[in-house]
Design a protein that fits this description.
This protein has 11 helices and 8 strands. It has helices at about 15-25, 35-40, 45-50, 65-75, 90-105, 120-125, 135-145, 160-165, 195-200, 210-215, 220-230, and strands spanning about 5-10, 30-35, 55-60, 85, 110-115, 150-155, 170-175, 205-210.
Length: about 230
């Protein structure tokens, strides 16, 4: 299975995003819009990015009572989006409600279950009363999500091999926490991997933000990552 690249468009304003998107048109297919830009500009900005020719991954990590999440999915479903995130820790009933709403509203939309954030380590889990290790919790939540009808997961690349062993092969695995081997710091990401290693581990997509956004030439940075994925 080939691994593709998603740009995490984690910038504060559409004005800052505009030149980056223009440079990357024709270079990559996928853009992730998160809470920052969606909160600032709403659905209109999703349409704006889609109109540039990008596939949109809307990363809102919905987590609420089942009916509220289902209604949110119904509201978002008509947007030109191909992926939408929910939190797997919302439980099976919530995930089943989200999937039912997705099928009703947008059959082609891929609901993604977020397992354990890549900014969270074992100590962070313990703070919330979870005594399992990060890999154990990711696998537990991944299996629950798959049993609830969720067809894709967001996880650290470090857990991809474990999930591939325990989940149906058709489950798509989307992995943030990607850094090049030459990068000294990992910022707030604690469980990270290089693009090539993530692809070899079995990631369907990798999500990359700062290594592209902060590059002197974002298009060249994206091409380099895509080349690494192709070689892997």
């Amino acid at each position: 299975m080939a691994c593709d690249l998603i740009l995490a468009l984690d910038v504060p304003t559409r004005e800052e995003a505009a030149p980056i998107l223009q440079q990357l048109r024709g270079q990559l297919r996928w853009v992730k819009i998160g809470l920052q830009l969606f909160t600032a500009y709403g659905p209109a900005y999703v349409r704006e990015v889609a109109d540039l020719g990008f596939n949109v991954f809307l990363d809102l990590k919905l987590h609420d009572i089942p009916n509220t999440v289902a209604k949110a999915v119904e509201s978002l479903g008509p947007l030109p989006i191909q992926m939408l995130t929910i939190h797997t820790c919302g439980g099976g009933e919530m995930m089943r409600a989200a999937v039912a709403a997705q099928k009703k509203t947008n059959p082609n939309l891929l609901i993604l279950g977020v397992t354990v954030l890549t900014s969270t380590d074992d100590a962070g889990l313990r703070e919330t009363g979870v005594n399992a290790t990060s890999p154990e919790q990711v696998v537990r939540l991944g299996k629950l999500a798959a049993a609830s009808g969720v067809r894709g997961l967001v996880c650290s690349p470090l857990e991809v091999e474990l999930l591939r062993k325990g989940l149906p092969t058709e489950i798509q695995l989307i992995t943030p926490g990607i850094r090049s081997a030459s990068e000294a710091g990992s910022d707030d990401q604690k469980r990270i991997m290089t693009p090539g290693d993530a692809a070899r581990a079995g990631s369907t997509y990798i999500v990359v933000g700062r290594p592209i956004l902060k590059a002197a030439d974002p298009a060249a940075a994206a091409r380099a990552i895509l080349s690494e994925l192709s070689s892997a």
